[in-house]
# Entry
Amino acid sequence: MSPSVSPNFFSEKEVARHCTKDSCWVLLGTRVYDVTGFLRMHPGGEALILRRSGTDISRELEGPPHRHSENARRWMEQYYIGELDRDSTQDRQTLRERRKVPEHVREEEVSGANLCSKVDPETDLVDWEKPLAWQVGHLGENYDTWVHQPVDRPIRLFESPLMEASTKTSWYMVPIVWMPLVFYLSWYCYNILAQEKTRFSLTTEYTFLVHRYSFPILFMFGMFLWSFIEYCIHRFVFHMRPPAHNYYLITLHFLLHGQHHKSPFDGSRLVFPPGLASPVIAGFYLLIRQLFPEGVGLSIFVGGLCGYVVYDMIHYYLHYGAPRKGSYMYGLKAYHVKHHFEHQTAGFGITTTFWDHPFNTLIPDETFDKSQ
# Structure
């Protein structure tokens, strides 16, 4: 809401009525937010917000258990709809009195909230009415800061409808396209190994027979190898730091991954379109065929391909799923959200945090002053 526009005012009773999945409002000081559209995206689950609907969540933003980042606060401002009208609660205790929060604490929290303004399309560094692909390269040294200030709005990359459509896909297209290939190649590899003609050479003088029962081991090795490739691509390709003076590298980074960080909940761009993924997958196939005998190489490749499908499905789920609290996926979702909103230079593992440990890119656990 523009500062020049008078805000809407709502009574405490009006705010309290919006406490369902269909309409959920919360307060930050005296500021009112309609977070209905954010319920599904919240990393802690929609229940955490619904339990606090109609109340002031200032302390929850500060933690524990989680201190929300500046990007998270800026994101929150996108849902601002007005102010709490305290004059309408003359016959009842005010929200401040009921929660027994000291005056000086309340004023600090309100002033802190006002510092976190949302990204205004009218004053942003790009023109949101036009495709962004050819604009971002002109941002120069402002690009890195801009691209890591996420917004809750769709992004149009290209003017051409065909080019734009090629960058989008539904999540279910990934398993529909690739899993039949996984099943076929698994059957094919097993039958090749079953012929007991595949030999693997450790040296020019020593070779050994690869038994058909080795297929599950080779398949799992392929999945493990993919997790390393996933980490490397995410860290060194998707999170490269393009030089501020290089228009083309900035544009390339934005098309590969920057647009995902700018709009992390754009559901049509959370998985890689099969058409664009095909050349990369074909390249890995040709490489592995050169390095290993057919039965061995294909077994590793098909395991890696399955790992890729699992990766894309998990990535989509981490953005839109609602895992059970305390589960592995719950922790992974919180970890990935921290990567988007607070630690963009760490937390590169998607399906697992395993590789973040040896390469020292693990997102640190939060600590709080217990004396507070």
User: Anything to note?
Assistant: Confidence is low (pLDDT under 50) at residues 89-118. Strands lie at 8-10, 19-20, 23-28, 31-34, 80-84, 199-201, 207-209. DSSP finds 14 helices and seven strands in the chain. The first helix runs from residue 12 to 17.
